[in-house]
């Protein structure tokens, strides 16, 4: 088993830095290993599934998607990964993983990805 921990650049950084990160994770995914989990702070809002053809997300996303969320979903789809936070139903209060300093904004940006959905159940970020 290989766990790949990610801390993606924030939205204030250029997209090229995010693309470099995804390329590095891609290289790690190509190593010979039976089971991979990619997890961490992706600084991307994936929101609610926008298209039933979308394979990388489940039906329990939350909030609105941003451009980095589009990029992450593209990358996850290309790597046959499922964003596990969106697969299992949770209370709204248990979905967010980041809160603004003033407490007014909450987002789900810490995400788990897996190719084999049967291995993770009730996926939450701490």
Automatic annotation (TrEMBL):
It comes from the Eukaryota. Residues 2-92 form the Endonuclease/exonuclease/phosphatase domain. GO terms for molecular function: catalytic activity. Pfam families: Exo_endo_phos_2 (PF14529). InterPro entries: Endo/exonu/phosph_ase_sf, Endo/exonuclease/phosphatase, Swc5/CFDP1/2. PANTHER family: BUCENTAUR RELATED (PTHR23227), CRANIOFACIAL DEVELOPMENT PROTEIN 2-LIKE (PTHR23227:SF67). This is Uncharacterized protein LOC106163817. It comes from Lingula anatina (Brachiopod).
């Amino acid at each position: 088993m290989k766990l790949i921990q990610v801390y993606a650049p924030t939205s204030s950084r250029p997209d090229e830095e995010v693309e470099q990160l995804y390329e590095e994770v891609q290289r790690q995914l190509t190593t010979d290993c039976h089971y991979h989990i990619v997890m961490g702070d992706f600084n991307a809002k994936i929101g609610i599934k926008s298209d039933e053809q979308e394979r990388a997300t489940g039906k329990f996303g939350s909030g609105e998607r941003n451009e980095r969320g589009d990029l992450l979903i593209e990358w996850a789809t290309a790597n046959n990964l499922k964003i596990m936070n969106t697969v299992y139903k949770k209370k709204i209060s248990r979905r967010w993983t980041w809160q603004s300093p003033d407490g007014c904004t909450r987002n789900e940006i810490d995400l788990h990805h897996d190719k084999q959905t049967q291995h993770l159940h009730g996926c939450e970020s701490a």
